[in-house]
Design goal:
By secondary structure, the protein is mainly α. The protein contains 21 helices and no strands.
């Protein structure tokens, strides 16, 4: 009996064993699949209970991290609010940084759309261009703890915001902007490299807050303007419109200069509302009349901070006046601009600034040579053009000899006894800057050059050579990137302007005044350290990039939001 029971038990176990083993394996597999709370298996298990087409895109660990981030974020907001309450209104700018970062994240996360908001960019860009000339930069609302609330900042910040939004929401606009900006790759590399240097040198600054603010202003007013210019000026007809607008505004500026020179004071100085009056004593001096020491000659400044900035602007408009004199179809317009050329020189003389005279001479001589060559190439039998090209060395050396031998011309260009102190000051500053540069060749940070040159504390600092500012603020790499942008841009513009391949293209003709003006700009920067007019020249650099793209791709009339050019 016992043997039969044992046999039955063994047979029953042998029969049930596969079932038991299968059940155990199933239970183990289910345990392996459903027991973990982290990892890929847990994600697959939770995804099966989510109704399609939705799907979980994070693990439980990610969810726990987000849940833990809530109290951490609340704690940060508590300290952030306490910091703002204790330091306002004196340290409002640092408190705005987290808000700016959040706005940047929101812009980056915007969904894609079919179109980009390009119309506000074009409108604000034009207003910025006009406001930079007709509105004095020193007239701004000044509140404690805040930067100046100037007209240009009110325009530039929304313009930059619309540009970033357009890049975020439109793939076509990103492609269009990338093609425009990178049409001259070395210029694009230098522009991006210089922006990176600006950020890095901020951490090496003794005053990171002021350096960061200065670097931010320069990125908005210079680098961002270059990028937007590359996009806007690629549109057919846009460069010509801005040429006309620039010349029209220069007429307005020259008229203001003449009136001010007659009255010998800033004509709106006595009619400024209190809330727009500059709070800084140095800026208040801008409203005072300026006379040349020893000669007592009044120096006009119109809407600019200094007579030097006014002379720089007027002199470098000269190539565009010459362009319309030589190429405009309307005879009356050509006569008007012919009259404007000597008026430009007269307005420059009213500033009593040598750099303006140099700018006019460079513009006339260089543009005259380019025009003669282009005319000779288009009309090989034109004796006047051929004679001008072959006789240009004689013309150039005759002009130089005239400047050297004529006391009046020599004084205009090189200065006399009254300007000896300015020349000596520039040489002294170069010596001081070289010593400071070798102590920290990677740069001291934006807007720190004056403090690092060894001037006395609280002294009024003016740097008369922009090379010194770049050298000390951004170091050796800053010099390479900043000057590289403009030198390469000028070289590429001249190459495409003078190349036989593009001889029949209107865009090549437009590059000539741009190259001449940028060349004069670099020359003037050796005797002028302010950056008041730099926005215009970054616009011109963007225009060069846009025109070069149109030449290389045979593009005509491409709308701003097109992803690809329409080839003819």
């Amino acid at each position: 009996m016992s043997i039969n029971l044992r046999t039955v038990a063994v047979q029953s176990f042998a029969t049930a064993w596969p079932t038991l083993r299968s059940a155990a394996a199933t239970a183990l597999a289910r345990g392996v699949e459903y027991a973990p709370v982290f990892g890929a298996r847990a994600v697959r298990r939770r995804n099966r209970v989510v109704i399609g087409p939705y799907a979980r895109n994070r693990t439980l660990l990610g969810t726990l991290i987000l849940l833990a981030a809530v109290p951490v974020g609340l704690l940060f907001c508590l300290f952030y609010g306490a910091f703002f309450g204790l330091t306002a209104p004196y340290y409002i700018v640092p408190a705005v940084i987290p808000i700016a970062i959040m706005i940047g994240i929101i812009i980056w996360a915007l969904p894609d759309q079919r179109t980009a908001p390009t119309l506000p960019i074009e409108f604000l860009f034009a207003i910025y261009f006009v406001g930079n000339i007709v509105w004095p930069t020193y007239l701004a609302i000044s509140l404690p703890g805040l930067p100046w609330i100037s007209l240009l900042r009110i325009i530039a910040l929304p313009m930059a915001g619309f540009f970033l939004v357009s890049l975020s929401v439109s793939r076509k606009f990103r492609q269009y902007a990338y093609e425009s900006v990178t049409s001259i790759k070395p210029v694009w590399i230098c522009a991006v490299g210089f922006s990176i240097i600006q950020l890095l040198t901020t951490f090496a600054s003794k005053s990171p807050l002021s350096s960061g603010q200065a670097a931010f202003d320069q990125m908005i007013n210079f680098t961002m303007i270059f990028f937007i210019g590359c996009v806007i000026f690629r549109k057919h007809g846009m460069p010509e419109r801005y040429f006309i607008l620039l010349c029209a505004l220069s007429i307005f500026t020259i008229i203001l200069t003449v009136i001010e020179n007659q009255k010998q004071y800033v004509i709106w100085a006595r009619h400024i509302p209190d809330f727009l009056l500059p709070s800084s004593p140095n800026l208040q001096n801008t409203l005072n009349s300026t006379f040349r020491q020893y000669t007592n000659v009044y120096r006009a400044k119109a809407t600019f901070l200094t007579p030097l900035a006014l002379a720089e602007f007027i002199s470098l408009v000269t190539p565009f006046l010459l362009y319309f004199v030589l190429y405009h179809r309307n005879l009356l317009i050509r006569i008007l601009f012919i009259a404007m050329v000597p008026m430009t020189f007269a307005a420059v003389r009213m500033t009593d600034a040598r750099l303006g005279v140099v700018g006019v001479f460079v513009s006339v001589l260089m543009y005259g040579l380019i025009w003669s060559y282009l005319r000779w190439r288009a009309q090989p039998r034109d004796l006047f053009a051929a004679a001008t090209v072959y006789a240009y060395p004689v013309i150039f050396f005759t002009a130089v000899a005239g400047i050297l031998t004529s006391t009046r011309l020599s004084t205009m260009v090189f200065g006399g006894g009254a300007q000896a102190s300015s020349t000596e000051a520039r040489m002294t500053q170069l010596g001081m800057a070289s010593k400071s540069f070798w102590r920290q060749p990677w740069g001291y940070g934006a807007a720190q050059s004056g403090n690092e040159m060894g001037f006395a504390k609280d002294a009024f600092i003016t740097i008369d050579n922009f090379f010194i500012s770049v050298q000390l603020d951004y170091g050796l790499l800053g010099i390479i990137f900043w000057y590289g942008m403009f030198i390469i841009g000028i070289a590429v513009a001249l190459f495409h302007c003078l190349s036989d391949r593009y001889a029949s293209r209107h865009e090549a003709r437009l590059l000539a005044p741009l190259a001449v003006s940028l060349t004069g700009f670099l020359i003037i920067k050796w005797v002028h350290g302010q950056d008041e007019n730099h926005s215009f020249f970054f616009m011109m650099l963007g225009m060069v990039s846009a025109l070069v793209y149109r030449l290389r791709h045979n593009e005509v009339a491409a709308p701003i939001t097109d992803a690809r050019p329409q080839a003819t």
